[in-house]
Amino acid sequence: MTQMFELNYINSLFSQETAVTIRQMELIAEGKRTPSTLFTAEKNQLQTLFLSSLSLTTSEWNDRLKKLTDLGWLTENEGRYQTTMQGQQAKKTFISDYPVMDCSLDMSAALTRKEFWHWFMFVTQILSEFSYGNKEYMPYISDRISQNRIKQWLAEQGFPHKSLSLTWAREIRAFLETLPDAHCTFIVDQLIGHGYEGMTKRQTAEKYKMTPLEVLITTENLMVRLSQSFEKSVLLKSLWDSTHKNCHYGLSDSAYRSMTLLAKGNSIHKTASVRKLKENTVKEHVLEAVLISKYDGYKSFIPEHIYNQLRELFLNEPSLTYAQAQQDIHQLEFFWYRLVEIERIRGNI
């Protein structure tokens, strides 16, 4: 089963709504934040693929999708790949064999769940070494900027009080106890602490008879599971929130800067002027925020009568195209159309 993991994983990404080209799959996996790529991911329910650890070249994508087609799990029509009944059955079997893959992922946390693992590991190392009074050790994270951010977070939690180490250990233990034994040891084997060097990804793959991809995705999904069980984990939740903020809540740096200005009440025109950008660029940043972080303040950017007209048109024709909408609404901006179309896709119309 391990040798088939990659093919099974790709197949598991497909739902009944998915109909995409190889290039679209590749761009989503690379984490491209263009409005068209993000919209394709949303429309085809491929949020889990966004910024994935699945790193394939174009030729490799061609090879994998051809194999899935040969298996009868996918079908290809005019360059677009869709699932089959056989493919959906294979998906159910795969998730049954790998329950950790049954994990709801969104694009806003795509970078956070990767970064959080490293912050989680480093904090564990720092607190472990501190509890033994050891200051001479090789830090898990060598990047100075990340080190300083994590140290700042620790200071905000009251470090260097010993009670912090005890609380951290208690919260980790509580999380591990919710996992199957295999996943519990999978996490523990990789941790770093005083007198304990955790396994590398290669060593972990060898011990658990996994592919490197399986190790990465399993680790990331377990971190998402952790983020969904923060009720009694004050420190872990705080670290996740800090990591998420550091990752700009999933947005690109430029989009984050624009959205920060817009959140202060600035218009798109004013924001573009302050940042010396084109207004269309700021509009793309709004679309990025809507698609990635579920930003819901976009209605103020659409004239109310246009918004109402678009909603009425989508109610009457869910597959309404921009060209069709233009026939009913004079000087309709594509930006306005796309925002309301996203509402329709999300079932809000």
UniProtKB/TrEMBL annotation:
Residue stretches making up the Helicase Helix-turn-helix domain: 255-321
Organism: Alkalibacterium pelagium
Protein name, entry field: Uncharacterized protein YpbB
Pfam families, per database record: HTH_40
